[in-house]
Amino acid sequence: MGDNVFIPNPPDVVTILWERSPFEKEAPRTIREATVIGSANPCQKKLVPGKRFNKARSCLLENGFEEIVSDSFFLHGISVFVRVG
């Protein structure tokens, strides 16, 4: 019973569905929907529909997340971020 067993926390996962306006050629990507499994702190307030995707992405990357999937479908796209530890 004296064994010290370390059980790591599960990873934090954030998925973002984004969209771009079809009416503006250089329109920024905006968040359509975001889901979080675990925690997205301190970036939670940036994961709101209508907010800019690039600001949320930068926050996640600066806070230990890795972007493991990024795919786009013309005006829409999805990105998945994971933070382990």
**Which class do the helix and strand fractions yield?**
mainly beta
What is the helix/strand order?
EEHEE
Low-pLDDT stretches are: none
- Cα end-to-end separation: 26 Å
Count of alpha/pi helices: 1
Query: How is the biggest beta sheet arranged?
Result: 4 strands, antiparallel
Query: What do the pLDDT scores average to?
Result: 94
Q: What's the helical proportion of residues?
A: 10-25%
Overall tally of structural domains:
1
Shape, principal axes of CA atoms: elongated
How are the secondary structure elements laid out?
Elements: E1 12-19, E2 30-37, H1 53-62, E3 66-73, E4 76-83
Describe the structure.
The protein is mainly β. It has one helix at residues 53-62, and strands spanning 12-19, 30-37, 66-73, 76-83. It has one domain (12-83). It has a four-stranded antiparallel β-sheet with strand order 2-1-4-3, with helices on one face.
